Amino acid sequence: MVGALVAVPLAAMSVGARPRPPHVGAMALAISSATYHNGARMPYSTVYDRGGCRGPNVSPQLRWRESPRSVLSFALLMHDPDARAPGGWWHWVRFNIPGGIHQLRAGDPRTGTDGTNSFGQRAYGGPCPPPGSGIHHYHLVLYGLNVGRLSATPSTDGPALLRMVHGHTVAAGNLVGTYSR
Hints:
By secondary structure, the protein is mostly beta strands. It has a single domain, classed as PEBP-like (Phosphatidylethanolamine-binding Protein, Alpha-Beta Complex). 4% of the residues lie in helices and 31% in strands. A six-stranded mixed sheet has the order 4-12-11-7-8-10, covered by helices on one side. Strands 1-5-6-9 form a four-stranded antiparallel sheet, with no helix packed on it. Strands 2-3 form a two-stranded antiparallel sheet. The two termini are 26 Å apart. Residues 1-21 have low confidence and may be disordered.
């Protein structure tokens, strides 16, 4: 395992990209990745494959520790608050990950359901900030939910999913990667 992040106080991104706790009293989840360390530059394998970027666009491997028994499913958001777009840029929107799952393999398209990212795709969309725009921070937030399934659909975007998890989050963890070009 390349990187590990121990439980951290969670600050999820709201629609306006301002930190906001997803649930008062949410337990912290320890989330880690074999793909990159917390706070480190995301590797080329994760970089987007369009928009001037030519990466493989493979979602990172993720692993998290045991969650409370009250977690029935997970939701995952990857957000770039440094993007020039109002509210930042949503790179990954995934939900209805079964509560018994504690890892996602790199490039795993099958575990859970993908919503719509800011690229307009129902898939992972890796980092690809504009050249010269400085270092961007990619907040990958995993939410442990007290519901087995959200009423989200493949057209659900990041802000909508964030509203859906609010009030259902019993545990959460955050892993941050950086990228610039």
